[in-house]
Structure formats: structure tokens, C-alpha cells
Amino acid sequence: MNASARLGIVVVAAGSGTRLGHAEPKAFVPLREATLLEHALTAIARLDEEARVVVVAPSIRLDAAREIVDRVLAPGSGAVVAGGAERQVSVAAGVAALAESDADGALDVVLIHDAARALTPTAVFARVAARVRETQAGVIPALPMIDTVAETDGGTAIEAVADRSRLAVLQTPQGFPFGAYRAAIASATAGHTDDTSVFAAAGHDVVTVVGDEAALKITTPWDLRRAELLLDAAAPAALPPALRTGVGVDVHAYDASAECWLGGLFWPNEPGLAGHSDGDAVSHATCDALLSAAGLGDIGSRFGVDDPRFADARGEVFLTATLELLAAAGYRVENVAVQLIAARPRFAPRRVEVEQHLSGILGAPVSVAATTSDGLGFTGRAEGVTAIATALVARVARVSAADEPRR
Ligand code: CTP
Ligand code: MG
Known about the structure:
- The structure is a single chain.
- By secondary structure, this protein is of the alpha/beta class.
- It folds into 2 domains: 7-232, Spore Coat Polysaccharide Biosynthesis Protein SpsA, Chain A (Alpha-Beta Complex); 243-395, CATH 3.30.1330.50.
- 31% of the residues lie in helices and 26% in strands.
- It has helices at 36-45, 62-72, 87-100, 122-135, 178-186, 195-201, 221-234, 281-293, 299-302, 315-328, 351-362, 377-380; strands spanning 7-12, 30-31, 34-35, 51-57, 78-82, 109-114, 138-144, 150-152, 158-161, 168-170, 174-177, 206-210, 243-255, 260-262, 265-267, 272-273, 331-341, 366-371, 384-395.
- It is elongated, with a radius of gyration of 36 Å.
- It starts with 6 loop residues before the first strand and ends in a 12-residue tail after the last strand.
- The relative contact order is 0.10.
- Bound molecules: cytidine-5'-triphosphate and magnesium ion (MG).
């Protein structure tokens, strides 16, 4: 192991996790995308300071632990040893391995950490180590007690209710000056459940630093659920919604001297539609709906009347140009629905043909319906047509800041 590091960390992961009740030993139970041990080591790998890490694993999981150590920690900075039947035996095995790696006495601080506190932030490790160096005391991360705690007779009778303001919840990593700690555990009696009591029993001072809610010890299935919720809450903010809808409306007056083009098709013997382009209200409303869905403006602002590409242009030209804008902004068309309101042409006989034509251009289902307005309004008086379209688009690529849709 890397002999220059001053910081030694023992990660005890040899427990079976009886209270969690999982088939795997607790440190190898998954918490979202990684095991508890992987989470614990990931926080350690993020320390600025170089560290020497010993993972104490169940003897039946030494290979699995080695695989995780090799993958998560910097090369040469981690080792795996087998633990014992009691946590204190496991701690001793880890400390012994650290001592063995420290022939030239570089280690000044040792941290003892529970793999079960898988989400302990890196900052807690750094805070504890710094405080040990400042004070030469034993250092424990602690949080104020929230629940009311009582002493009982071991059964149902309460003997005393504790003064909560004097109580604290203790976490790990617990840190110690390495030499003093080794001496303390060498002379310790059995039955100490935490590392600090061993150190204090040898006559050393013990102080606290601020712990962290995320350093909870995962013990029961409910704790695992809490840890999942913490992880989810810390996940990066979601992308903007993946689906967006848009709407578009277009109106053109009849022009009996022009050819009639609607839905991208030619309609012989029908009055044409007036406009800078061919007046294809179905195609233009579709373009507006698509641009609106992607937050890319509208047909007027995108394809101006002074742009020669669009003078007298067919609907297909606008639709193709619109598709290109959507693709560049990372959007795909999911579907489009268009309603034409017009006295002429009689639409029904060619409805399917129009749908197939537009679906072919957009590469997505386009449905088109038509109605008259029962003699009412400008469409009823056969002065012109209205088309209304809605579109649904899906984001297929992360949108760069430059073409982020306007909201
Ligand atoms: N531990 C250990 N060796 C043991 C017992 C515990 O290394 N003989 C480790 C656990 O792997 C855990 C930490 O000490 O990271 C805290 O122990 P605890 O939460 O009690 O874990 P388990 O003993 O595995 O769980 P349980 O008590 O429910 O069986
Ligand atoms: Mg236990």
C-alpha cells in the first residue's frame, strides 16, 4: 500500500446485516446503482488528502471486496482483510493491517468508519482528520438528539428520562492519533461497541465535530429506504420536460386565379389561396405548431417574406425547413393533428392521401380532419380557409444553451 499517506482509514464491512435481513452481507447490498461498500469508498476516494484504506470484509466476500477496492480507490491505496465475529475484532484486524503497512511510521491519523454509513459525505472524513491533528484527541462526528430518551429497567418500567440537551447521536468516521490509538486497543478489554470508548478508557480526551444526517447507519430496511431518498434528493436536477406540445393557426383568402395547394397536394379545379407562398394553410399551421412545440418561434419570424427560398414555395419546403430547425434543437416530431375549416375544397375524398403525404414528410403520424363552418363567418361565406394544428415533440438530445427553447 502507498507508504507516503499520513491518513489511514479502516472501513469495517464484515458484519452480516442481520437486522437488514438481506441475502447478502450488508456492505454488499445494493443502494440504487452501487453497493453500500462502493458508496462508502467513493466518498473516501474524493478526499483531497492521500489515504491508505483497509476494508475489513466477511471472509466469504474477500474477492468481491477486492474488486470494489480496485475499482473505486486510487491504485495502491487500498487493501482488504478478513473481519471477525465482533465489530471490535474487525476493527482490530483493520488497524493491524494498517500498522503492518506503516514500517516507516508515516501514519499520524486513523479513521474508523462503518461501511453501513454508506452516504457519509467526504467533508466529514476531512473534518474529523483535521480535528484529530489539531487536538490530538479522539474525535467523533455527532448530531443533537432529537427523540426523547429514557433509561428503563431493561423492560417496560422507565427509571429516568434523559436530559436531551446533554445527549448526542454518535456517528463514524471516528478519528484518533494513530500511535495512541494502537496502544489503546492493545490494552483494551472486550465488549467496547465503539472505538471511542476504547480510546477514552485508556485515559485520552474525546471531542465531537458536527456530523451529518447523511451519515446515518443503515441498519433496517427502512434505513435503506431513507438512504435511497437521500440519494435521489441529491441527484442532479432533471432535464426540461421530454415532451412538449404546440399549437398553430393559419388563414388564407381564396384567390380564384391561383392554383389550389393544400396539405402539400395539388387540388385541380378548386379556387387557389392567396399568399406570399402557395397559401397552403394546412402545411403552414403544421409548421407553426411544430415551431411552437419546440419553443422556436413561428413561421413568420423563421421564414420571412423577404427570404427568396420561400417566395411561392410549396408547403413541403416549409415543413422540411421546420424539421431541420427542430432536429438542430434536439427535437423529434411525435405527432401532429390538423383541423381544416373550409367550404372548399371538399376534403373527405382525399383525407387519407393528405395524411400519408404529410406523415411521409415529417416522419411521424399526421392526422387531418376537415369541417365547414355551417355558413357562418368568413369560412362560411367562402372567403377563405382556416387551419388549426397541434403538435407533440420529444426531446431526443440535450439542448445546448445556445438553442435552448424559449419558455
Ligand atoms: N461490522 C464488522 N464486523 C462485525 C460486525 C460489524 O465489520 N463482526 C461492521 C459492519 O459491517 C458495519 C459496522 O460494523 O459496517 C456497524 O455494524 P452494524 O451496523 O451492526 O452491522 P451488522 O453487524 O452487519 O448488522 P446487524 O447488527 O444487523 O447484524
Ligand atoms: Mg451488528
